[in-house]
Amino acid sequence: MFFRLDGSRMGLLSGGCLENDMQSRVEEVFNTGAAAVYQYDLSSENDLGWGVGVGCNGIISVFARDVDETFRQSLSFVYQCFTEKKPVLYIQSVKNVDQYVFLNSDKGTFGKWDQEIPDVWESILLAAPPFCRYSKLISEEDYFLQLLWPKPSLYIIGAGEDARPLAYLASEAEYSVHILDWREALCSPVYFPSAETIQVDSVEKLMKRIELTPLDSVVIMTHHFQRDIEILRILKDLQLFYIGILGSKKRTARLMDGSIPDWLHSPVGLSIDAEGPKEIAVSIVAQLIAVKNRRQA
What we know:
Blueprint: E1 2-3, E2 9-10, H1 19-26, E3 35-41, E4 59-65, H2 69-83, E5 88-93, E6 100-104, E7 109-112, H3 119-127, E8 135-138, E9 143-148, E10 153-157, H4 163-172, E11 176-181, E12 197-200, H5 203-209, E13 216-220, H6 225-235, E14 242-245, H7 249-255, H8 276-292
Parallel strand pairs: 10-11, 10-13, 11-12, 13-14
Antiparallel strand pairs: 1-2, 3-4, 5-6, 5-9, 6-7, 8-9
Helix pairs in contact: 4-8
């Protein structure tokens, strides 16, 4: 969670139980370059305890640090890694707050670190599957490790009316949304105000232009049989995180010459008997989240 001097903030630590108290506590580390650890006991049942009405039955430890100029430069390094769609491993000493480092998959590092990084820590970064949630306190050495992932990207191919609620909901779910279509009249910020990019060209040129990675997801909703064949012919050779296509299984089987491969979600979205563009958008975003979090849905 990010706290600002003016009282504004980004993110959440809990469902809202701790944030106001943390706002007052972190003021003591602003502009100090220091850090502090705060503990909240949510297991107490008496009326004065943090556990009233919460029912968490545990203790939360919050590590807070001042974002000074040096740490800000480290965050710039993380941002650059994210723009290149590379994950980052954050290593922080709890005993010595000045000892921290950010490591990317190319073994590039940034931070204040005066010792060798163990191979086993590097292997966490290199072996982790996409969007794997990993955070661990190595208590015997008092180091905290966390994997940080770039924002997932969703490429929606087809800018019809049914793509609009999907683009909006995916953006709200913290996806970076990109709209691709050959029809200029449909590709407008008026219809897709939350999209990061809107690209208009022939399908062939669009597919050559974008650089898709194993962290990217694609949803095809062109409603155009021949163009869908063309798109799938290109996508089938790519190692993408998620590919889904709008339409019935029967239609998809025809597109794929008889059988639907395991890498293709068809029909796209969770089976919730969705009707209409908004409900279908909910089912698609729910499936994207389930796949990203490796849940059987």
